[in-house]
Amino acid sequence: MLPEEVDWLGERLPPGSGRGRVVLNIGSSTRHYRTVMQPNIDRAIFRPLTERGYKVLHIDRKLDEGVDLVGDLEDAAFAKQLATLHPELVFCNNVLMHLRPGGLSSVIAAINDIVPMGSLLFVSGSAVYPHTSDPHDNGLRVDEVKLARLFAGFDVVESAIVTSRRSLLGDLLEDKRLAGKVALRALLPFYRPRNWLELIRYLPKIRTPYAAACAILRKR
Is 24 part of any domain? Predict the structure, then answer.
């Protein structure tokens, strides 16, 4: 997640006590990721919620430290299990672009079933960002309007495009190892040709700041 994306979401957490209320963090990754690699995620979002009494459950497909529930939202039985928790808040951030192409619609449908009427969905995804194959990249890049429209059963509370201070050019200038890797990749069109093509297509945006589409949606 972009730092600016995290801050935008964190600044819009609902006020007041959350005692007895459940928060689901879909696609949470590990505790190490949330507290060490990107410590602002815990600092700005999940620690404040925990301190106010919310029960935060981190959900991912892989068992690891800091993952409370392990499962795949494409599994109807797992999605049904999550729905029984009646979450007050659901977070789904930097996840949709990493789903396999055939799984996007089923995961969105699962989220629609998991979020109860009146509860909030904090969702975000890349608007401007290079192709990444970790673990998948289905090519989904959306603005805040298209992001909200993916969730037909929700009303928009607030949405925005959040622009980063970073860009691919800035990252390449800062990280020589990354620059060498990208340069080598550009010279090998026959190795994973789709990834090569995505890189070449992105080069005109090399100076463009990264951006994320963010939305807070309420289930109706």
Answer: yes
Q: 95 lies in a domain?
A: yes
Number of domains in the chain: 1
| Contact call for residues 85 and 55 (beta carbons, < 8 A) | no
| 1 and 162 Cβ atoms separated by less than 8 Å | no
Q: Check if the beta carbon of residue 111 is closer than 8 Å to that of residue 150.
A: no
CATH number at residue 148: 3.40.50.150
CA distance 73 to 27: 10
Gap between the Cα atoms of 62 and 71, Å rounded = 7
Tens digit of pLDDT for each residue in 61-107?
Answer: 999 999 999 999 999 999 999 999 999 999 999 999 998 877 899 99
Give the structural domain span for 19. Answer: 3-166+209-219
Amino acid at 177: R
The model carries a pTM of: 0.93
Compute the C-alpha angle 167/169/173, nearest 5°: 120
